[in-house]
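A favour, since you know our structure tokens better than I do. Go ahead and set the record down below.
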Amino acid sequence: MQLEERHAGKILVVKVLESRLDAKIAGEFKEKIAGHITHGDSQIVLDLSAVTFVDSSGLGAIVSCLKMLRGQGQLVLCGMPDTVMSTFKLTRMDKVFRILPTHVEAIAALSHKA
């Protein structure tokens, strides 16, 4: 599984470079994000602009990452294509996560709260 990871100040920006966030890679994805959280990253932007499909395992992995923060940080999603946004709306996860159009806006939103 491929991720592009970088820091913008204290904010970790993770871009998923796979077209599918599904059962095949959900476990590895969750482990990588968990490692970052364990090492102190608590303000995270998850860029899903390259992802065209998320199944229940992928969605569950993203939710798990939010739970790992235990209210001590934030996970903001950005760049979702319409197909992925439809899944979030269908499952009402669009009400759980803060979702912004671009990583620039997501970084700015976290910068004001960090």
Notes: The chain has one domain: 3-111. The mean pLDDT is 96. The chain is about 40% helix and 25% strand.
